[in-house]
Amino acid sequence: MFREENIEPGDLIQGTLEMLVLKALARGPLHGYAVAEWIHQTSQQLLKVEEGALYPALHRLELRGLLDAKWGASENNRRAKFYQLTAEGKKKLNAESQRWARLSAAVAFVMQAS
Amino acid sequence: MIPFLHEFAGRVRSLFLKRRSDREIAEELEFHQSLMREKLIGQGVPQSAAEREVRRTFGNPNRWQERLRELWQFRALENFRRDVSFSIRLLKKSPGFTAIALLTLALGVGANTAVFSLVNGLLLRPLPVPHSEELVVLGMDHGGPRISNSFPAPFFRALESKHDLFSGVFACSSRDGFLVREKSGAENVPGILVSGDYFSTLQIPAELGRYLTPQDDRPGGNPGGLAVVISDSYWNNRFNRAPDVIGQKLQIANTPFTVVGVMPKRFIGADPTQRPEIFVPLSTEPIIDAPENMIAAGYHGWWLATMARLQPGATLDSVNAALKTMSLPILHETVPDANWIANQEKQHFHFVAEPGSRGFTFIRFVFQKPLMALFGMCGGILLLACMNLASLLMARSAARERELATRLAMGATRKRLIQQLLIESLLVASLGTLIGLLLAPIVSQSLAAALTSGNGRNIFIDTSIDLRVLAFAAVSACIAAFLIGLVPALQATSRNLSDRIKDGQHATQLHERRRVFPRVLLASQVGLALLLVVSAGLLATSLFRLYLSDAGFDPKGVVNIGLEAGKQPLDGDPLMRVYQQFAESISHQPGVRNVSLASIVPLTHYIWDDSFRRPGAESRGLNMNAVGPDYFQTMRIALFEGREFQWSDTRTAGLKIILNRSAAKLFFPNQSALGQTLLSDDKKNTYEVVGVVADAKYEDLRTAAPVAGYIPITQFNQKKPSLSVVVRLDGPAIPLASAARSLAAQLAPEIPAPVMTSMDRVVDDSISSERVMAILSLFFAGCALLVTGIGLYGTLAYSTARRTSEIGIRMALGAQRARVVALIFRENATVALAGCAVGLFAAIFSSRVLASFLYETSPRDPVVLLGSVAALAAIASAASLLPAIRAARIEPISAIRCE
């Protein structure tokens, strides 16, 4: 789904990319490149989103009405497609973060058991 | 739910904005790539290496496009689109198969749709009036096999007054022509007599003025005089849509009527096959029908079609129960003859109501059967076309086995393959249907014209294509597609994958078992074709025998000139003198051999019967005609004894009668009839037999010559009789027509322009529906033979091609070419034989259905049955010989080498 540096590929749970994309857009509209960059930076360069997965995910979320897309000017004044969370998207992000928190805590409990 | 809807809307949008979304995807990726390139260059990577890195990350741009676009598409729709374009490519690859498929289907669907639109127009379409489902047709059950729908006026008037049972009851009676006097002369306009509640029950308001009400339907009309309502087309043609038409006078049957309203175009009345132009009150019937008077005939005159509208909420059952209880009281109230009532009571006379949403027309009784027979034949042709295409497709898909196997191996699911194969047949079916639909209106109109031409009345069958016809065509296309495609698709994809890739060219006989089904299909095709050929053969034979049958007179070169005398002032001897003068003047025209007069032209479906008896014996019914001097010579009916009538046979000269031979034998067996006397049954008149003539057909060509009697036209006691002048001509008839018109205008200006018809035309018309049926069935049979031939040939050609290497081996092992021919030939011969056997059995089994259409032809006529089998055998042999000969030409070496 996407390449993770220093992490064995295929370990991440399905649907995680979509959650990360939603999270990236929580602070405001971004274009696709910025979404990838933000995830890369924020994960301390651990996660690198592959373009081949990013764009289908963005379009899928747009199609489902979780994202809204608008064409606008980028920082260097070029035409770019900006994605933005809709109300549905925000709700979905909340639900996903809670689910993720529970899941990672549970995994942590198991892994820390002696 | 919301995301789903959003998704759906998004996909629908992108369906229409395909171009734009493609461009946007490209632009978005381009933007990403440029940022990535800039970043790499910013990190110090050289331009060319950065470019390579970008290309490495993104790969083929087209694949990107594809992946993203797929998201926005309806998967099924996209698959469908692909299947369609793939199927089109495949169909284009084999134009021969495609052309045959389209042609046979267009024929099948076109013929079916054409006949269905006739059935629809005549039997199915509801009347264009509000709540037509509330309408009922009233009838009388006399205990006979069929309900009678012709009411006498007193019964109808009694029912009309029962306001509590129906919300409205009306009666009507249409006429081919109301005599309307114009400045330019008299004109016949199709019209109808309607009772007071006709319009209010049909619930269509007038588009101008008002419609007729019960106040108009009284002797003498409303206080303002006689009222009339006209149709939109009459308003258009006669009055040029003048708004002041209301209040104008029309001279109908020499009586002034005032126009009170114009009905809108959509109003056609209660009979879907009539388009009356003039509506007059029922009570004016004595004026319209003069000199006859059906109202005065009371309960002896059966002439009114009666319909009613149910009260809201009433059911047919409750109404029928109520009608039953009121039937006898109505009889007692209206019929003065106690014997008659007692007789009816014995037969459990009662009124009945039947569903009437489609209006009422007598034509239905005439055409229902031939139409249904035609429909059956068309259905047979369509089924045959489907079966033929199915077997061709099956043979073809056998040839396509490797392609299908490869596709399966590449990961296509069986469902998808079947879907694609079905879409292929759906494509063929819908294209064929489209062509058929385009042809259907032309076919149905000419069919309607051909079917109705012989009935002498203005019959209008609305064959226009409506939703019902379209739905029918669509359903038949879908069924056809399924029949054509499903079985071959299932078969083609059913076998084990590896098996099929293994055997390329098949030297094996592995799938002998699989070929059972195609053979059954082919055999039933042959059987169905035989059934169609047999029925066509029977109908054609019957028509041929009808044509050859002796009418008893010679119709060649005879024309009739019909004169309409009912509405002019002369009667009795003065009128007869006009007829005599007219006939004599006609006889001086060039080319005229003989001239005579007749009250009834034979074969025109008119019957006049009367009873006579020999003094002291019981009375016998005779079909009667009143004829002028030289009638038998003109018609070439042999005169065995005695003489023809003469102008001197006047009323005072003693009543005369001429009998045909059967009648003479009936009354006077073993003795000469000449000079004998007969008594008329009712009036106790005495007739002297002055001649005996040969038997001749009377009512129509199908009915055998009846016992008949002729009386002199000069002793014909009908009031103001309308007679036909019969003329035997040597030359062309056209100059005579204009001569007759000017003669009539000169001798009797009050008589409308005479109508001339040739006797050949009368004969043709009297068997028009037989002719249409026979021609169509021959056409269908020809198609069936052709289609079957193609099917047999196609299937055998494919299967032989697949056996090339097997045959090669056989020949290499020493098989003679003749044996190879026999081997291939046998394959179809068994199929054809089995099919013929089944078809013969079916033909004999279903012979009862056809029997009623046949004239002097047994439905098991051995010549027809054998001939049909021979025709099919010939077609099957021709279709099998070609592949067999081709197989025999196979060179063993090359055949084996290609394995």
What is the tally of beta strands of chain A? Answer: 5
Q: Class by helix and strand content of chain A?
A: alpha+beta
Using the 3D structure, state the CATH architecture of chain A: Orthogonal Bundle
Largest interface: A-B, 21 and 23 residues
Q: What would the principal axes of the Cα set say about the shape of chain B?
A: globular
Tell me the total number of β-strands of chain B: 21
Strand line-up across the major sheet of chain A? 2-5-4
**Oligomer status:** heterodimer
Count of helical stretches of chain B: 29
Strand content of chain B: 5-15%
CATH topology of chain A: Arc Repressor Mutant, subunit A
Please tell me about this protein's structure:
The complex is a heterodimer of chains A (114) and B (899). Chain A is of the alpha+beta class. Chain A has a single domain, classed as Arc Repressor Mutant, subunit A (Orthogonal Bundle), CATH 1.10.10.10. Chain A is built from four helices and five strands. In chain A, the strands form two sheets. In chain A, strands 2-5-4 form a three-stranded antiparallel sheet. In chain A, a hairpin with a 5-residue loop joins strand 4 and strand 5 (79-85). The longest helix of chain A has 26 residues, at 87-112. Chain B has 899 residues and is α+β, with helices and mostly antiparallel strands. Chain B has five domains: 2-73, no CATH class; 76-125 and 362-504, no CATH class; 132-357, no CATH class; 512-551 and 769-899, no CATH class; 558-766, no CATH class. Chain B has 29 helices and 21 strands. Mean pLDDT of chain B is 85; it is low at 505-513.
